[in-house]
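Blinded run. Sample ID left blank on purpose so nobody reads anything into the name before looking at the predicted structure. Input follows.
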Amino acid sequence: MNIDETVVESIVKKVLSQLDSQQPQDCCPGGEWGVFKTMDEAVSAAVTAQQEYLNRSMHDRAKYVQAIRDVVLDQENLEYISRKAVEETGMGGYEYKLIKNRLAAVKTPGIEDLTTDAMTGDDGLTLVEYSPFGVIGAITPTTNPTETIICNSIGMLAAGNAVVFSPHPRAKEVSLHLVRLINKALAVAGAPDNLVVTVSEPSIANTNAMMNHPKIRMLVATGGPGIVKTVLSSGKKAIGAGAGNPPVVVDETADVEKAAKDIVDGCSFDNNLPCIAEKEVIAVDSVADYLIFNMKKHGAYEVKDPAIINKLVSLVTKEGKSPVTDFVGKSAKYILEQVGISVGDDVKVILMEATEDHPFVQVELMMPILPVVRVPDVDQAIEMAVRVEHGNRHTAMMHSRNVEKLTKMAKLIQTTIFVKNGPSYAGIGVGGEGYTTFTIAGPTGEGLTSAKSFARRRRCVLVGGMDVR
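Blinded prediction complete.
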């Protein structure tokens, strides 16, 4: 049977047209699933979205948050963004990114975080509730690009906001891909278009445009001290999740075998990229040798040659003052190879003894290089930990059975996270109780951010009624 080719072509075009009409359309003119050419277009779209979002119910918010969780937890998406983050940034490890992205999707609080306070009496009823700021500008890092977008999107949308992301340029492709995934999932869930947006070419100029945009009501910066300082001087409400240099103290009462494993596991997690990870060990002299022995059993490689240690300093730091970016998030095996030492994949941490003034103690490297400093007693260890933490108030760990000394360190160091007798990542809900976030605000005091961090407390007063006591 002969069929006219023009008839076939007409039928195919008609079917394709019908299929296209059934798909969710691009979010709005100028945008493609939340990705816009200019920051002004992105902000304007987010403003429109947030105004519509105000009319949606709390049930709707919960549904949209679940849509974000579901699209991230889809195994194909989860594996892709985890693999892509490592490939694009050159930092961390795929197996760790899987854990972190899943963690952000599962354990970031949603609308349940927005609790209500009520006061009743002879004069009536007063409610204090959490309401949105509006449109939030969020700056995300190269170290935890997807994890930060996931937890911020969930928390900020749960609080009723829209969000404009300014990703790190070295994590552009994976960040844009994730924003598109989130927008498609939100569209299927029936959310307003463009609740989560970004620009196609992230840059310093675009970040500045976002921070200075009059319709951005709040800024959230997850990154180093420079960008935190910038947002704090913006004149807007700002949350700064800055740097840390987390010390871990081990005293003579500790379970040394467990402490050694916990420290290696925490330090090596995602090649030391999390700001919470153990950056230096301060050990009481009487247990230091046994601690080092056990750390080596669990994947630490000890470097004793001073010449090699000096070579490492020259290789991975800029004159001992800041880390060389090319080595941030690289594996212990890779770093050792650069100084002529071949090891197996079982080596997770590079270990050496050092003094307090050594660059590896003083500088946050964000690579699995772990100096051990000996001290005569636990009180000197605590005092040194406070000094080398540099007042970042980020994270610290202590391994001890002495409740008095644990309490002393907690009070003196004043970090947002203080982990007792566990690896650092227990502080964000991995093997420890509590919720997860990758925006940990020490400088501005919000601590582990959640939905309520991105909302305003408002008082609603009803005079002369509703007191039923």
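Unblinding after everyone has recorded impressions. The chain has 16 helices and 19 strands.
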